[in-house]
Amino acid sequence: xxxxxVLWGTEPPSHTINTIFLSRDDRTLITGSTEGxxxxxxxxxxxxxxxxxxxxxxxxxCAIGQLHLGLTDLHIVSxxxxxxxxxxxxxxxxxxxxxxxxxxxxxxxxxxxxxxxxVCGQYGAMYILDPVTLETRHALLTSDPTHWxxxxxxxxxxxxxxxxxxxxxxxxSVKTWHITESLQDRQIHESENKVLACPDPVDIVYNPRSxxxxxxxxxxxxxxxxxxxxxxxxSDSSNxxxxxxGGRFYAVxxxxxxxxxxMLYIYKLPDRAVRPVDRTDSTWNAQPSxxxxxxxxxxxxxxxxxxxxSYRTLHVYLVRGEAGGRVKLWRxxxxxxxxxEGMGQAVGCSLDESWASASxxxxxxxxCGNCHEVYSVTASASLEPLSYVACGLSxxxxxxxxxxxxxxxxxxxxxxxxxYTRLKGHRSSVRVLLYPHFxxxxxxxxxxxxxxxxxxxxxxxxxxxxxxxxxxxxHAGPVTKLxxxxxxxxxxxxxxxxxxxxxxxIAITKATDNAPLFYGTCHHTTIQEIRWRISEDILLVYxxxxxxxxxxxxxxxxxxxxxxxxxxxxxxxxxxASQDFGTTLKIYPPGKSFPKQTTGLNVLPFRFRDKxxxxxxxxxxxxxxxxxxxxxxGSYYDEGSEVTLKSSKNSTINFDMLKKKxxxxxxxxxxxxxxxxxxxxxxxxxxxxxxxxxxLPLDPNAKDEKHIPAKLADKSDVVANGKVEFPxxxxxxxxxxxxxxxxxxxxxxxxxxNIDSTCLKHLGMFAPAKExxxxxxxxxxxxxxxxxxxxxxxxxQSDGSVYAPFGRWCLSSTLTTHHLLAVSALANKQxxxxxxxxxNQHIRAVSLKRVSDNALEREELLRQSIxxxxxxxxWSHVTALHCIVLPExxxxxxxxxxxxxLALKWQDRCMEVREASxxxxxxxxxxIGFSGRQQLxxxxxPYVVRKRDVNPPEPVDRILSIxxxxxxxxxxxxxxxxxxxxxxxxxxxxxxxxxxYAVSVIILGVIVSEFSDEVELNNVRPLVTSxxxxxxxxxxxxxxxxxxxxxxxxxxxxxxxxxxxxxxxSPLRRAAVDLIGRGYCVWGEFMNLTAVLMALIELxxxxxxxxxTKKAIAQSGNLPGTGNKERLAAAATVRAAYQASILIxxxxxxxxxxxxxxxxxxxxxxxxxxxxxxxxSPFPSSYHSVLDKGRYPIYLLVQNVIEKAKxxxxxxxxxxxxxxxxxxxxxxxxxxxxxxDLVPSLTRNPMIDYCGTTQQVAVGSAEGxxxxxxxxxxxxxxxxxxxxxxxxxxxxxxxxxLLTYSEREGKVTIWQxxxxxxxxxxxxxxxxxxxxxxxxxxVSLETNHKLTHFKWEGTRSVSLYQMNGTKKTFTV
Length: 1372
Hints:
By secondary structure, the chain is of the alpha+beta class.
């Protein structure tokens, strides 16, 4: 789960508006830009407020449309000029789906009747897409594919649901397609075609009031045509200043048009253009229109316009979007006479205004000297070790620092010049930074970065030492791009750097050479892309004019220049990954994965155009953070690392040693003895390094470029290639800083001031002094980023200015879900760790200089201690605030957590995330009450029924017989459900997304498991004849009896799906396992118990999980904190299956033991008969018996039954329990260990006794029998001892005497043999009853059953302790 936080910087990003969209409810305005962004605004009566930025398109957004899916959320679809079509949920700010069409797109519209998506592009057809899946349903074909459609309009004929599509082609022809409601053809040909004299059309629109006439808008003119036969009715032309951009019918006899410059005109149409006339009139002539109103919407510049009538009110909206990013909106009544009254007052906003009012934080907001001039970030790059970032400034400096410290510094407004280092060398702005180690780590050192600037120079730096390595000044212009060769580069290209300057000149330089290896000019246009062909010794340079230059790498000569189709084929044939020159935001660099995260957070520098300054997205990996914190639990550092982390409660942090370590770290990494503000030359830096080498003892085995002291270098820090990693102590500090930063940003400040005070004093958190812009990351590398100014400021508190917490929880359900999950999971994890630093202590410790001015204050600060109990109580309060109390303090517009997302996290492999999602899910179910839960059932249950109706599962025997050739008998009656659908549910004919079925099963399963008293457990409706009473019964339950049947089948299907259909260790399977265990009191009526138990046992036999992990799961239920994802997922599945089997066994102990005993008996019989055992299972390893592999899980299950079951239930199944235990335990262990050592809980029962001499077990039963198990022989012999239930048994230490007692019968029997019980039976067939002692019969009380037992006082004396406290002694 990735959580982004945006540090925008001092200037807003570019947003050149290209298209405008207004939602049907008139509350949301969205603008699409040429940079590929979607900017979402909230529209109020007197204001427009930018809300968030949606980033995903790689090219300019050309059109936006609203989807009509019958949902409360706002869903839109957007298209870009490169053929991308994205589907968004604007309410949640999340990406849903995307598809890419071949060829550039121009427009996209949602059909009003069928709600399908109509797409128009630069190709000879238009396509109709499915609104859910975005798959192509129909193609609208033209007679001439070379003439593509430029614009179109859609209208519905009266009294029909059919749709007419009228389009204008590039040559001015009008074409018509008729779309019927029952259309099935994939290809639809045009029904009409007529050539019009309409050069360069831009828009066509019908009169919505009459459909008699239509208007065609071209660049230089606009015309009114008759709607049926397109007879020209009126015409007008544009002046030379600018061309027409669009138009709409303002009234029946008036049209409103606008130009690209923003000028608005209203024309009155002639009478003949309004009233129907005789079409056969040969004297017809077009008449001109009269301009009655003109209005300048803004300054004369390129802009986009939108005019639309409201669907809710009688208002008309006119929106203008300027190229500079400013939006203006006019709202007037439909009946208002604009000609006489004017357009009225406009409301507007821009990103510049939001930045000016909010003053968002910047990751590097540096000052120079005493002038306090703020410099912009003109270049940025992420560095791999410990999440560092390098930022180039407009004054030529390069700032390098740790992300967490820089972000804390920016958000808290703490002046701390020690949290970063400064590299000086460039004389003007830094244009580009390159960290080549990320692209080719095997070639480039992790301590080297490259920079290019406005001073025409390319420089290399050792950022760990803080020195400049080399400087090349070979370009005649500013350096704009730096690239590194691919990993397969050899010879002199290995380790080189390619640079590009503004004059479109490329050069290849290398640190070991004084002259450039390659220098290429002759590129007449902007370089767009470069592709390396190392094997062919050529370099391909693709320019903006679709020209490819082919350079020889070894010779440096230009081999040839290709254009047009040949150039495109050469680029397409290049197999090596390209290095994109585009300016769109990308999460990952092309062809590479995200930089390796060692501290749980990383930074993503971004900008949308080359002229923009850089912003930064700090990305937190919550699951990785939790995993890293688990690694630090109980660990410690050697003497050189001063932070000691232990699992004990009294472990503390040594701040005195931490101060020394921070000073050493700064001195070693950045190569400085003390901070200086002047430019440090290379010779002076070398002098400082020499002084440092003299003053600090260095490890002789360490690399020269690292200079790591011997006491900080540890064997665990050295990897296979000899590279010395950073000390683990520093990594632990970075992890703690990341946790503190994330919790401080996500905590709900201002809700409870007592909790806020605890967070500041004891929990290592800080209150942000600036507004935080949050965001979300969806799949397909898409972002939702909040715009500064979305949250209002409250009154300043005593500890500084704090922002109101309510706005964030009213924005998006997705944002609320992610933040609550992260806070709850991290707070729970922190309660079990000792990783907390108070913020003040940490900041002071990091910023301390080698010589402090106030030693007493420093020592007092470092001596402060944190009380462990207060810390844990504080974390508990933080968890309760976000999981329970928060909705009570937030206004009614609170966006509750997204239940489908929580359902998918119900069995997440991360334990903290899993527990947090379950707690939030259950809180929401309780908060919404019975009516809210009923709405959830009504919303999600149709997906369960629809899945069964559309794709009914095959019979279980058939499904499993495909995987396994032999079928065990207990799989032949899995679930008692009807074969036909229980009801018909009206749904649209659309494909159900794959996760909807799984989500519906989990949501309904949780409701049934946790609120079982609100479902119909008994089918009483067949006994009721009145329809009113039947409806009353249905209304009183969340789910009816038949609905429970269907849901039980769905859960069991999720459990037993083959791995080829559902991954074995998927969260969905784990969720089904968990819910079956939780609610088996309900599902038990519909599921075969044996089948469920065997499937759960099979899941626990995964070989990827070690026996030590399984033991830890059985003892504490905890999973290992470290390991790869596959092993952690397998361990989570084993844990879920173990807990579910335990819950089922505790709910039905007798049935569970009887089922296992029956299968074990069948297994033994088959083995004795010499049959091949293949116990059926839907999982792998079908040729081995589940019982044979699952001995340890069965042993754990039975042991839990012994400990948890009541004595009354246990006495009836005790014999079968012993049979199962002896089946699970290896008989060889009885040679060295007794039964009490192997199963302690079993031997504490007075009805069982074990003799170690003869390795025999005597077990009493409720029928009065005593079963004698011979472990050596593997046999069991029953002995009829009493006519009532056996209460206690005992065997002499030598194994020759057996005593039994029955409370109900009041009798003690003594049996003897000469050489062991079974040996006597094998010779004579009976045991010899030596003596019978009659006692007073007693009624057994379950609370006193442990008091009735035998105890040997000597070799021949035994005592019977009865439940009433009396003691009887017998001599044997």
